[in-house]
Structure formats: C-alpha cells, structure tokens
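Take just one protein record:
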Amino acid sequence: MAKSPSSYHIDLKESNGLTDIFQGDIDNCSFVSAFQAIVLYDLGTSLRGLIKETCQGTYTILFNVNGCQRDCPVSSELSEKRIHSSTNPGLLWPAIIEKAYLELYQYSSGQFQGSNFGNDCYLLTGFIPEYVAVEDIDMAFMANLNHYFHDKQAILGLAVDNLTDDEISVFRLVPNHDYSITEITENDGKFLITVKDPSVAENSLRVFLLDEIYGRFKTLYINWNSTRFTYRESKSFVMMQSKRFNNDSFIDDYQFRVSFTNETWVLLERHERREVTDQQLPGGISSIQWYEGEGKLWKSSDGKYISSVPVSNSRFTLCKLDLKGIRKAVGVFRLPNEADEHVFYTLMAYSTSPVTIERPRNRLKYTEEVIGNWSTWESGGNWSESTWYDNPQYEIIADGGTTDTVACAIGIFSDCSLHIALHVFDHEFGQFNRVFYFSRKELVTDIKRYNEGFNTCLVRLQAHRKYVLVCSTYNTAQLGEFKLMVNSDALVRISKIPHELGLFTKRIDTEIMANGEDWTLVTSFKLKRASRVNIKAICSNLDISQLRLLNAHTVKDISSMDVHGSVSFLGSQKTKLQEGRYEIQVKITTRQKVKVDLEIGTDYKI
C-alpha cells in the first residue's frame, strides 16, 4: 500500500538533490522554472528561508504578493503530482512551497489563470521583474546582461510563444512554456545561452546561440536583485472605475509624483484577485506616461514628456527613471475607456537615495468642479451660431483676498466625439445674468478652436468682478455630459446661470403689419407689482430694425435696441420695473406682415 501524504516527514534542512528538481503533473512550469533559477542563484538559501514550521505538520510560507509580504499556511499533506527531485525522493520541502503557491492561486478550485517566470520569481524572492521582448535584444544588451547575470544581480528566464506543430518538431520546444537560463557564455563574440526545461528530469539543458532565440522565444524575464537599492517606498491604491470621458486628457487618470535624487525604478503591481468570473472585462491601467514636474497634469502639454511604458498582462510594469537634473516626475497611469471596477495596485519605488511617492495636487491652491450637460433644450452650437446663447453658462466670481487679480486654469472635459470650447466674458456691467451676444470686446480668453473631448485656458480674473463662462459644442446636435474645472490661487465661486428669462415665462406668437407710425405695437402687459422684465424676440426675417420696451403711462422708453439678427434680447435682470402697463414695440421696414415670437420673463405670472 502506498504511503499516505500525511505520513511524510519533511526535513527543512535537506539540500541533496535540490539542483535536480523538476515539474510534476501540475501545470505550473513558471513556478518550477523560477524555483530552479533561484536554486542556481543561491543554492536554495532564500527559498528555505521562506518556510516556517508553526506546529507539527503545519507550515507558513512567506510570499511577496499584492504589495506586501504574506504568510500562507499549509499542512504537510502532499500530492503525488508534486514537484520532485530526480536524485533525492526525500527532498520534500520544495513541495511545501509549491503547495502554498497553488493554494494562493486557488489551483484546486479550477480558477488558476496561469502565471509566468517573472511573476513567480518576484513572489519567491522580491526581485524586481522586467519583461523584455526577445526581438529587442542585441549584442550590446546581451553584453550588459551577461555581466549582471554573473555578478548575481539578475535571475533570468525565457518564455516560448504558441508554436505550430511543425515548429514544435523543428525547435524541440514546449509551446507556452517557461525555461530558466542557467548559463551565459561568450566565445569569439558570440553568446551561448543555456536554458533548462522544468518539466524534464533528465537531459533538460539546451544551448542556443543568441541568433537562435529569435523566433523560438518571445519574452526574456529579468528579475533584478532588489538589494542593489537601499531605499524603497510604496503606495497602494484602488482603481474605482474606468474613465468618465473618452478623451486624450489626463483628468480622469491616476497620477503619482515621484521625488528622487538618483536613479529610481518604479514598479507597478496589479493585485491578484481572489474571485475570477467567466466573463472578464478589459483590464485596468493601459500605460504609464512620465512627465517632468510636480503638479497634477490636465493634458500632455502641461509637462515636459519623459517616457512612456505600456502595461502588459503580466501584473508587473517596470519604469526606470534615470534623469539627469530632474528631481521630480509625475506618472500618468492611463485608464482604458472600459475596465474592471475595483482593481487594486501597488506602486513601489526603488532608489539608492531617499525617494517619495505622493499624489500630485493641482498647481494652484483651490479647485472647483461642476458637472454639466448639453441637452436638446440647452445646446446652442459654436460661437458663430445665432443660437450660441442657448449653451450652458456659469457665473464666476473670484475672491481675491489680498490681491487684485486671481490666476485661473479653466478646463472643460467631455467625450472625444464632441468638439468643444469654453469662452470667458467680463460681464460686470451686463444687464442680463446670461451672455446673449458673442462680444470680442468682453472676451477675456482667446477664441480657441473646438477640440475633441477637452479644452483648457489660462486667465487672470479681477477680484470680486462678475464673469460668465460659456461651454459650447461645435453644433447643436452634439449632446452629452461634461465636467468643468477651475483651478485658482484664490477662492472662486461658480454657479449655474438659469436658462430661463425669469421665474415665470409668457410666450406670445403673433403677426403684425406697419401701421403708418414709426413704432408698431406687438403686445402689452400689466405689472401688478415691481418685477424684473426680460424679453426675447424672434423675428421671421430682417424686416424689423428696432425693438423697444415702453412705459404706456409715461410714454417713456425703458429699454431699446437696434435689431441686427433674428433673435434680440431686451430688458434687465438687475433692476425692477414698477407696477403699471408696458408695451413692446418694433419698427418695421416693410409693408408686409412680419411674424414675431416673444418670450417675456418676469418674477411672477403676468
């Protein structure tokens, strides 16, 4: 009768046959190849140090995972499918580590999604993983790697891609399989690379010329000795959701500032998830872009570009920052348009001098955010349209404190399918709350082009003065949500300006003809008590030259204006008219009927 697993005695000091470890009947070549490479590196000293016997027959294994070191408890019961030594059947403690590894990744539940040499080497050693495409390896790279390998600064492995049946026969390699690199030698300017197949007990070594690894292998795994750095800083964070808006701005992306004085490596680790669904959504962070500076970036031109690193599916992404003269860099962690929610990450910085990781702040002290919307009733198109005034508008008043002017960065952000712009007007002396006409004289920002998805500007505002910000799309058919942000060096108050002319609005549609007088009556109304009065007049053609509001009792003009387009506005939202009867009159330049549509806004129903 075969021995039961529980009857095994595990000697943690046993080392005979350690270099002859090979893979059992479990599909975990990445773990075994990493284990073999670590044994070659230090004869298994670090691996043996991972195990601690807590009580008889129970052990804890210390792994580097999810941004920390974690103890994984296991019993001494071992499967016959376990990792073995071909020369010492009694060498069992490697199987204890393997068992903890499989339990960590829920292998028995069928949820094991696979791993790779670099991930598993980090899990076992904490050595910094880097993934290099084989086609990017050249002689100079190999010469440096050879030095680091023999100087015990790196542990190396190779991955085979998916192969055709013919390629398997010719190359004599296992597809989708990881191999450890056991030796690198240079002879007459040629590099020879010895690899070990973790699944073979005997004759497991193969030697390749550097030129021969192209086309056979896809990825070089490098796990850098982390003791080369004396300082380490880490921050963990959770990606709560995907980007709110699909555009090229950075406003929804996670950002971190790294401060350093010497060469610094930054490692991003995506945490393993305990639950795995059958239908996985697209992953989390897609790339990391680095810029010189220390403040939060709204867009790429806000900082000097340094480098960009794509984020692979390998859980780890390494960024090497060796920037002469630069002491602070901001990393922008680009989010996809769709992503898993609640993805956890840890960001680790390694350096030979003190290093810090912080979330950058906006460059100025105060920030206000507003969420708005272009809807069918509040979308007026670009500034050259006669309906431009129908766009969402916001009142901005800056509290200067001890200063006369306030510096402001203003941005508007939406989906890239929308071409959008923002314009700020000095509206201190405007009679209406809203801006109804595009006045270059009152404009305090440049007339910017309509950009895809976002637009920004820098302005200086006079303290305690009223400004109006108009958010517009290029045409009225472009509808959707937007975010408005104002970053300033003093407190700024932002409030939405109502689209309506007043608390109550009365509509009058009529046709009139000239009556032989200078002015022709359109309509009249009576105020029972004081009220603000605001009038919007829409004419069917340009046969009206003037519009006025008249006090019928005193026959005195309250307000008048020349008409230059199909839409005109008259009145004031600053002052109230006293009770009485009022008339709206026009000057007509034709003898034909003229259609006039009126909206009269007041403080109460008339």
Q: What stands out?
A: The chain is about 10% helix and 45% strand. Residues 1-7, 276-282 have pLDDT under 50 and may be disordered.
